[in-house]
Design a protein that fits this description.
The protein is α/β, with parallel strands linked by helices. Helix content is 64%, strand content 9%. The protein has 8 helices and 5 strands; from the N terminus they run E-H-E-H-E-H-E-H-E-H-H-H-H.
Length: 206
């Protein structure tokens, strides 16, 4: 699903994706997006942030609160880099973000990376289910895995945006970045521990 209040952007992104064989659902604003999501569940949503009716952050919150939709991958589209503060608050809810103008190569690469990641994650969790791992543990693993991946991607992008000199000059940004890095370390440690536990169950069941 492509969501943007600018028709030209929706049409352009749709053409890019349709040329690669993707089936597209279009929504020209946040309200239309939410209305269509009542009847359809896309594999992935390209979501613009700045929209006059219902903005992208509110749409994202509504998606994550909905049991039918909360596992749908969301790529944020934005005209400017996200701040470190926003990353700290929102990273766990999004799969990726792209800065406009979006190139076809960048868009397709991001989607293919998510598809590849999703396939690997599904194969691992399906093996865990067959080995009798409880659903609470599997859900926790999926949550941690997504958080670590997204935080790492956004952190890398922010580091590229905030040069070392700028980070040193902006104490608030540096502190937030340090907090994000610490959060990545903690989540990654928990993920690795849980991965090892699940993998032991899978190996024992073979």
């Amino acid at each position: 699903m492509v969501v943007d209040d600018e028709p030209d952007v929706v049409d352009l992104l749709s053409l890019m994706l349709e040329s690669q064989g993707y089936d597209i659902i279009t929504a020209y604003g946040g309200s239309e997006c939410l209305e269509k999501l009542e009847h359809e569940i896309p594999d992935l949503i390209l979501l613009d942030l700045i929209m006059p009716d219902v903005d992208g952050w509110e749409v994202l919150d509504r998606i994550r609160q909905n049991e039918r939709l909360k596992s749908v991958f969301v790529i944020i589209l934005t005209a400017k880099q996200l701040t470190a503060e926003v990353v700290q608050k929102k990273a766990q809810y999004i799969a990726e973000y792209l800065v406009k103008p979006v190139t076809k190569g960048g868009l397709i690469s991001a989607i293919e990376n998510i598809a590849s990641y999703s396939k690997e994650l599904n194969e691992f969790t399906e093996a865990a289910e067959r080995s009798g791992v409880d659903q609470v543990t599997i859900d926790r693993y999926i949550e941690l895995d997504r958080q670590v991946g997204t935080y790492k991607r956004l952190c890398t992008s922010l580091i590229q945006t905030f040069t070392r000199r700028r980070l040193k000059a902006d104490g608030s940004a540096k502190n937030t970045m340090d907090s994000v890095k610490q959060l990545i370390s903690l989540r990654e440690r928990d993920l690795m521990k849980l991965h090892e536990e699940i993998e032991e169950r899978i190996e024992a069941d073979r």
